[in-house]
Design a protein that fits this description.
It is a single chain. The protein is α+β, with helices and mostly antiparallel strands. About 20% of the residues lie in helices and about 35% in strands. It has 3 helices and 5 strands; from the N terminus they run αβαββββα. The protein has a 5-stranded antiparallel beta sheet with strand order 1-3-4-5-2. The longest helix is centred in the N-terminal third of the chain and has 19 residues. The chain is globular and about 45 Å long. About 30% of the residues are buried. Belongs to the 4-hydroxybenzoyl-CoA thioesterase family.
Length: about 160
């Protein structure tokens, strides 16, 4: 992640994130090494982000005039998680631009200390018909919902 060192990310706690979503791992999430496959982390990061967008930003994936396109993704892995653990996916916004947003997702194991992984996703919100950002940027409902997750320093309360 561009603005934080790996050591800073390793120190993340649940309190650093305003939104939390639980996910019960599945047997199929494990790989032959008996831990969650790397591709599942990206699936989970995408899921917590889109859950938040649908619940708090008015996003309706099949019909919304604006929708997010993935521009960047990155993950720092610190410790494994595996079935049958419950993952806690914690979400914040580190940067909010005119048409783009940089999310950070911390993955924790329920009832365990220490972050397992920290991911970064960048979405660009585009017009459904042109697949280009609107000249006026993202709509007010999206911006308002994302501002609730914007973290300048420290943590904030859970939604």
């Amino acid at each position: 992640m561009s603005t934080s060192t790996s050591q800073q990310l390793r120190q993340r706690s649940r309190e650093d994130y305003p939104y939390l979503l639980e996910y019960r791992t599945r047997w199929a999430d494990n790989d032959m090494y008996d831990h969650m496959n790397n591709s599942v982390y990206n699936f989970l990061f995408d899921s917590v982000i889109n859950t938040y967008l649908m619940e708090h930003c008015g996003l309706k994936p099949p019909t919304s005039a604006q929708h997010p396109l993935m521009a960047h993704t990155h993950c720092d892995y610190f410790s494994a998680i595996s079935f049958p653990s419950v993952a806690e996916l914690c979400l914040r916004v580190n940067k909010l631009g005119k048409s783009s947003v940089t999310y950070e997702v911390g993955l924790f194991e329920k009832s365990a200390d220490g972050v397992k992984a920290v991911g970064e996703f960048v979405h660009v919100f585009v017009d459904r018909s042109t697949l280009r950002p609107n000249a006026s940027g993202m709509n007010d409902e999206l911006r308002h919902g994302l501002q609730k997750l914007l973290v300048a320093t420290g943590g904030s309360s859970k939604l």
